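Section: Multi-chain targets

For targets with more than one molecule, the full set of components is provided together so that the structure can be written out for the assembly as a whole rather than chain by chain. Components appear in the order listed by the source. The example entry contains two components.
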Amino acid sequence: DQQVKQNSPSLSVQEGRISILNCDYTNSMFDYFLWYKKYPAEGPTFLISISSIKDKNEDGRFTVFLNKSAKHLSLHIVPSQPGDSAVYFCAASRKTTGNQFYFGTGTSLTVIP
Amino acid sequence: ETGVTQSPTHLIKTRGQQVTLRCSSQSGHNTVSWYQQALGQGPQFIFQYYREEENGRGNFPPRFSGLQFPNYSSELNVNALELDDSALYLCASSEAMNTEAFFGQGTRLTVV
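Its structure, encoded as tokens over all components, is:
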């Protein structure tokens, strides 16, 4: 039962352009969403998060958008840089259960110089 | 550098054996969660410990068990290993249940 889905296994963009990574969820009880970035041979590192009371959160080049009615969130990276090349995981949780995350299957982003 | 260290980094075990994986968290991190990441999949939540008590469990059988110690270290034990247990096992720690979680680099377990 995959409650968080990332339907694009991979994405390639040119350096300087926008990268858009998408994520869908099925459980309406989720109220906290995160994006993690993972390099090979390293654990995931936290990138950005959003609470269900917001529809947008921005941190530098990274913006996360949440559409609760569609149960969809997206991560925008502008401008994309070669160092952004990594696997990006979308995760969801409920504030009442804390850091018990449900992860998507990941999107491998390649930024071409 | 997340301050979360897992050992060993790689491990090969035979089906039916038992394995113990270890995680050393940052001082003050009272919450630790364990995840299993199979090849091509996202991490799946196994269980969480808060102040040495189990605080939530995912859809994993009882042969997956854990311990958390007062010195901010923890263990994941898996009994009666099956081939499908081959995966990357990640631990994540945080000061509290809703503060930022820091992941270790993982232990790659191969069951043959």
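Chain B touches chain A at residues 2, 4, 31, 33, 35, 40-45, 48, 50, 55-56, 58, 90, 92, 94, 96-106 (CB under 8 Å).
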